[in-house]
Each structure stands twice: as structure tokens, then as C-alpha cells.
Amino acid sequence: MPEQTDFVEIRHAQKSFGPVEVLKDISLTVKRGQIVGIIGSSGSGKSTLLRAINDLDPLTSGEIWLDGVQVNKTLPHRQYEKHINEMRQQVGMVFQHFNLFPHMTARENVTMAPKMLKGLSKQEADKLAEEQLDKVGMLERIDYYPSQLSGGQKQRVAIARALAMKPKLMLFDEATSALDPELVEEVNLVMKRLAEEHMTMIIVTHEMDFAASVCDRVLFMDKGVVVEEGPPEIVLKTPAKERTREFLRKHIEGAK
Ligand SMILES: Nc1ncnc2c1ncn2[C@@H]1O[C@H](COP(=O)(O)OP(=O)(O)OP(=O)(O)O)[C@@H](O)[C@H]1O
């Protein structure tokens, strides 16, 4: 097992969109190699929290740290751009709707960032694309365009694209929600394999069984608050409504 150090730290994250507070004082640490699942009702703030980690949705207040460096630093514009590009290169993100470039083949989707941002030669980038697409079982379709791929295949290419930057952390935002049920498993298998390789991952998902099978810890979110956090076998066994009720009861008692 890799050394267990605090690797991602979210300190008192608070986020408002106008008058609406969508994240309310969330703190969380993820150790290197840990897999944390985030589960919660629609609109509870899961995506916003995930996007805050690489400052795509900047927090209103609070701090995000990755491997000992503060991500959401206040810096003069140019310095911030340089800093955030460096930070984002260390974080792979996979979205619900794949976000592949439609006019590029799988190979080109995977090689674009390593060529542009890391200066890899065509030969080096091609080798990398072959490795990463092989890892997700997509080598045979390396020269296919996204329109020629199924949803599950597109998502596997999207994962290969994120992995090609050799990230320290992978964020998955409902990576299987847009897929037909029969295509979910092939993407889950890729994520399970990454888990076996001890990739640090934060996974927003609606799939309780999947979370239970891969996550070391699960957070249950409701209305911008982490209602419960712990091992999946504990967090996932209580029905959502009961958890929310229990949380509110504790808060009301605490306020008395
Ligand atoms: N850019 C934005 N501007 C205004 N409000 C926003 C914005 N992004 C998100 N919100 C609001 O913030 C709240 C939390 O949204 P978020 O997408 O984080 O929830 P979620 O838990 O990921 O939901 P879902 O499971 O439906 O994806 C919602 O009420 C949403 O409408």
C-alpha cells in the first residue's frame, strides 16, 4: 500500500451562487491512495464540491489543498493562471457527458494535452495513447471518432485522456449516469482497476453498490452539508431519509 498521508484537504469550504448557499462549511481530507465516494440527492452540492477541488467553481470561502499546495490561492492574474494550470494538470476529471472533442479520434483526444502541455513528440504521444487506450480496453478503436463509439466506449476514452496526463488525483462526476444500463459495467470495471492500482479518487455517484464495492469512505451530502461520512458499509446501510432526519435531530439538539 502507498503511504497514507493527507493528500487532498478541503478546509471549511463554503460556496454561494448569489443568495443561494450550496456548500456549507465542508471539511474533508483524502489520503493518498484512498477512494472516496460522494452520494447525495440532486442539488445537494456534489458537483460543485468536486469542481471546487481544481477551482473550476471557486469557493466563496475556505481552502483546497492538493499534495501540500493550496489550489485556490489568491494571486495576481498571470501568476494565478500559471499556478492553476500546474495544479489542474495533476488532477484528471471525468464528466457525465464525456466531453470528448468530436472532431478528433480517440488517439487525438488522448494525445492533445500531453503534446500541448508537456511538449511530447508525436511518437511519444502516440505511444502514450496506445498505452492508455489499451488500459481501458480501447486500443482497437484508437482511430475512431467519438460519433463511432458507444457511450461506454466514449467514457473509457475520456478516462484514458485524463490518465494520459499522469494525474495524482482522479475526479469522477457521475461518470456512468448518462449510460444505458448495459454499458455501466464496462466503465465501472475500468474504475475498479484504477482502485486496485491505488489511484487516489473522488467519485460522485448515484450507484450505491458500486460505491460500496470500491470506496474506502463515503460521504452522504444533503443541502450543501456532509450529513454522514464513514465506511460504505455503515453510511450506505441507512436509508437516506432516516439519515437526514437523524442529522437534523442532532443539529436541533446541538443548538439547544
Ligand atoms: N453556476 C451556477 N449558478 C447558479 N446556481 C448553480 C450553479 N451551479 C450549481 N448551482 C446550484 O447549486 C446547487 C448544487 O448543484 P450541484 O450541481 O453541485 O448539485 P449536485 O448534488 O451535483 O446535483 P445533481 O446530482 O443533480 O448533479 C443546485 O441548487 C444548483 O442549481
Automatic annotation (TrEMBL):
Where do the ABC transporter domain residues begin and end?
Answer: 8-248
Query: PROSITE patterns recorded for this chain?
Result: ABC_TRANSPORTER_1, ABC_TRANSPORTER_2
Under Pfam families, the record lists: ABC_tran (PF00005)
Q: Has UniProt tagged this entry with the keyword ATP-binding? A: yes
GO terms for MF: ATP binding
Q: Record's InterPro entries?
A: AAA+_ATPase, ABC_ATPase_HisP-typ, ABC_transporter-like_ATP-bd, ABC_transporter-like_CS, MetN_ABC_transporter-like, P-loop_NTPase
SUPFAM superfamilies tied to this protein: P-loop containing nucleoside triphosphate hydrolases
Task: Provide this UniProt record's keywords sorted from A to Z.
Answer: ATP-binding, Nucleotide-binding, Transport
Keyword Hydrolase recorded = no
The family assignment reads: Belongs to the ABC transporter superfamily.
Which named protein is this? Answer: Amino acid ABC transporter ATP-binding protein
Q: What is this organism's lineage?
A: Bacteria, Pseudomonadati, Pseudomonadota, Alphaproteobacteria, Rhodobacterales
